[in-house]
DNA sequence: AAGACGAAAGTGGTTGA
DNA sequence: TCAACAACTTTCGTCTT
């Protein structure tokens, strides 16, 4: 897990005295950063709380965003979803040198040759070809499922790792990509049902499940069991339910878990049933059918879970209607 | 007529011998 | 490897709103 970097929330690396926003002398909270002196000063009593602070900002100044762009010496962030991580140098197509002069004929033919080989070599190693194909599949799949960028990046990273571990060999790229995406969603606590991912890709559920388990085993990833609560916000949005219902649903799920109602049950069904109960309680009723559809379970399952919840939690069905 | 309910039989995956 | 098993699905008839 720790290898995934960022999967767990970062702890404050700075010392607590450094981030404590109160003056040690007068207790005032109005601290002022004086970056030219590298000092942090209390705005009320003037006590210098820390000096020799490192200015992490740029050493140049810019007065407009264009100027800022022009002076910046760094490029786009490194991205795992681009098969070469977006880091490769590209030989420009203009036959001019850095100062804009035309190149000499010999230099020109040399550059031409280099350019040709760069293009040839770029996607030529089998690994790169595989990655390039996988990344475009990842892009397609995640845009179809509406997966946010950070999760795509994590999926891409997982895919790279699985290539290194030779997990892709003999398996379809599509299946592996789907598995990494599914895993990434769960790591970031934004789980998507296995069926949903399987439908969007051309991989059947069984293959996807196999690849997913392989991924977890070989990369030593531990993923907490999917929690029904993680599904709520998405389902509620799809059913256009208010946030009050969401909160109530979470409440219901927590109570259900407390009395052991959730063990061995399909989290999807639980999420669906809890939403159903909450929607009735708060007078925003949705049909079992509609909820079952977004949660990808059957009405019967919604019904069974819902009845259990109502019975065990002692919710009064009479007062609900 | 749509939605909710419940029974019965079928399905795919896990467990333990 | 196989049977037993729990959870879930499918299907369908009946009741309720």
What about the largest sheet?
Answer: 3 strands, antiparallel
The tally of domains stands at 3
Q: Globular, elongated, flat, extended or rod-shaped: what is the shape?
A: flat
Query: How big a fraction of the residues is strand?
Result: under 5%
| DSSP E strands, number | 3
What is the CATH superfamily of the largest domain?
Answer: Cyclin-like
Description:
- This protein is mostly helical and 321 residues long.
- The chain folds into three domains: 1-62, N-terminal domain of TfIIb (Single Sheet); 129-219, Cyclin A, domain 1 (Orthogonal Bundle); 228-320, Orthogonal Bundle (Cyclin A, domain 1).
- 52% of the residues lie in helices and 3% in strands.
- A three-stranded antiparallel β-sheet has the order 1-2-3, with no helix packed on it.
- A hairpin with a 5-residue loop joins strand 2 and strand 3 (48-50).
- Residues 1-18 have low confidence and may be disordered.
- The structure holds a DNA duplex (17 and 17 nucleotides).
């Amino acid at each position: 897990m720790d290898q995934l970097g960022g999967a767990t929330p970062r702890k404050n690396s700075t010392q607590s005295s450094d981030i404590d926003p109160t003056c040690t002398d007068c207790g005032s909270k109005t601290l002022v950063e004086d970056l030219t002196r590298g000092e942090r000063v209390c705005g009320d009593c003037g006590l210098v709380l820390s000096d020799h602070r490192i200015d992490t900002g740029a050493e140049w100044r810019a007065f407009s965003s264009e100027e800022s762009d022009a002076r910046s010496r760094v490029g786009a962030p490194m991205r795992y979803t681009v098969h070469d991580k977006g880091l490769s140098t590209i030989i420009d197509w203009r036959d001019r040198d850095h100062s804009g002069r035309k190149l000499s004929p010999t230099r020109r033919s040399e550059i031409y040759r280099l350019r040709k080989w760069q293009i040839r070599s770029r996607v030529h190693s089998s690994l790169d070809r595989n990655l390039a194909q996988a990344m475009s599949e990842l892009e397609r799949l995640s845009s179809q499922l509406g997966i946010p960028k950070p999760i795509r990046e994590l999926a891409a990273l997982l895919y790279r790792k699985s290539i290194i571990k030779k997990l892709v060999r003999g398996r379809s790229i599509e299946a592996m990509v789907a598995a990494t995406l599914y895993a990434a969603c769960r790591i970031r606590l934004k789980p998507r049902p296995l069926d949903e991912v399987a439908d969007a890709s051309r991989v059947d559920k069984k293959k996807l499940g196999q690849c997913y388990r392989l991924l977890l085993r070989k990369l030593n990833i531990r993923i907490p069991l999917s929690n029904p609560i993680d599904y709520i916000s998405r389902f509620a949005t799809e059913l256009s339910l208010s946030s009050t219902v969401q909160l109530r649903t979470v409440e219901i799920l927590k109570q259900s878990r407390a009395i052991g109602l959730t063990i061995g049950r399909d989290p999807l069904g639980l999420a669906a049933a809890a939403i159903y109960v909450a929607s009735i309680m708060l007078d925003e009723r949705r049909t079992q059918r509609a909820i079952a559809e977004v949660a990808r379970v059957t009405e019967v399952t919604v019904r069974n879970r819902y009845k259990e919840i109502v019975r065990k939690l002692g919710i009064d069905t009479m007062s609900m209607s």
